[in-house]
Amino acid sequence: MKIVLQHLTKKFPARGPVRGRKNREDVIAVNDFDFEIPDGKLIGLLGPSGCGKSTALNLICGLLKPTEGKIFFGEDDVTGLPPENRGVGMVFQNYALYPHLTVEKNIQFPLENLKGADKLSKEEMSKRVLEAAKLVQIDHLLERKPNELSGGQQQRVAIARALVKLPRVLLLDEPLSNLDARLRLQTREEIRRIQQETQITTIFVTHDQDEAMSISDMIVVMKDGIVQQIGKPQNVYDDPVNLFVAKFLGTPPINVFSGEVKKEQLYIGSEAVLSTPGVSDQPVHVGIRPEGFILKEDGPLSCDLVRLEVMGRDVSIVSTHEQSQNVTIRSIIDADEGKSLPTGKVHFGLKPAKVFLFCTDTEERIRF
Ligand code: ADP
Ligand code: MG
Questions:
Q1: So what's the pLDDT on residue 100?
Q2: Does 121 sit in the ligand 1 pocket, CB within 6 Å?
């Protein structure tokens, strides 16, 4: 089921003037969302804490009413429908399981309130519960209570409960945040597998770019309620529209320098490091991905070596430069390339496709 958002906006009114303080401003938590989520895909909704991710999800599931705009599931306008009539499955960060019910009863719970034509017999319910439990591989745990399960198992119960009504849309709000690092990796693969098996259109909310990049067909990067960029993870990484997106994606993060374009040459400090045809003279932020550096004795960008970190296949060179906006610069090169490393100064050439320029006023990308 495709999801269409039309000018979707949610404004939270300021809570009246507080004595002794200035009037607080309205918060526009979701600002004019206007895009389509294709049928059967997994979408990562990504942005820092407080940028409006949960608000967007709650609008889509119907727990919140929009200030403006519309939501369609397929051709159906669901904007006015209550959550229970939208056919959505929702999974929250804190699982929200009933502690006094068994796993089986927890999963079955959403089926018990079905009315009229949707009402299911006991046998039908048991069959559905077992199918959902099998899908998330907890069918051997049906008799247990939530406190007899690990965090990862509890999260699977929450996912099974969201799937048991055969939703048209699955919404996951930071579902892995309460898991430890190893389980997080494993469970995100599981979510990907379940989504591919069921082909349910899924929106996965996270502040973790690595998580979103690794399992999403498409990511939506947002900041302060506003969508910054939408695309395949790799395309957004390779072609960010502004400095915020460039900095938000990638581990290790992008290196940012203060630079200047003069006569179609990019300068970092006094060194001309790259030719930038078509760019007019101006100061710029220069973003260089860690893999964008080439070790080269006569390379134009010279940095002061801090240390080397050898990590199997790669060598990570940590260095500094006067014009760097980060405390240290991190460049990643092949292990063989790093064998005869200089001490003191390191000289780099740059891969043009890994270097991005941004306007110092608007922080928008300047292409060359
Ligand atoms: P995220 O999930 O990305 O961390 P949220 O959607 O929870 O962000 O919040 C977005 C913004 O809206 C924040 O500034 C938050 O303080 C504000 N907000 C969220 N819910 C409410 C509410 N019920 N009333 C007022 N402000 C809210
Ligand atoms: Mg949230």
A1: 96
A2: no
From the alpha carbon of 47, which atom of ligand 1 is closest? 3
Which atom of ligand 1 is found nearest the CA of 174? 2
Using alpha carbons only, give the angle 341, 343, 349 rounded to the nearest 5 degrees. Answer: 60
Q: Verify whether ligand 1 is closer than 6 Å to residue 54 (CB atom).
A: yes
Ligand 1 centroid – CA 292 distance (Å): 37
Identity of residue 52: G
- Token pair in block for residue 364: 């928008």
Beta bridge partners of 303: 346
Measured CA to CA, the distance from residue 20 to residue 12 in angstroms comes to 22
Taking the C-alpha atoms of residue 208 and residue 96, their distance in angstroms, rounded to an integer, is 22
C-beta 31 within 6 A of ligand 1 = no
| Closest ligand by atom to 50 CA | 1
Whether 219 is in the pocket of ligand 1, judged by its Cβ within 6 Å, is: no
pLDDT (0 to 100) of residue 157? 94
The pLDDT score that the predictor gives to residue 32 is: 98
The minimum-distance atom of ligand 1 relative to the CA of 56 is 6
State how far the Cα of 80 lies from the Cα of 94, in Å rounded to an integer. 27
Could you report the per-residue pLDDT of 82-124, keeping only the tens digit for each?
Answer: 998 999 999 988 888 999 999 999 999 999 988 888 889 999 9
- CA 46 to centroid of ligand 1, rounded, Å: 15
pLDDT along the chain (368 residues), means of 10: 97 74 81 97 97 97 97 97 94 89 96 86 94 92 95 92 93 90 88 94 96 96 98 98 97 97 97 96 98 93 92 88 96 76 86 98 97
Using CA atoms, how far apart are residues 144 and 127, in angstroms rounded to an integer?
A: 18
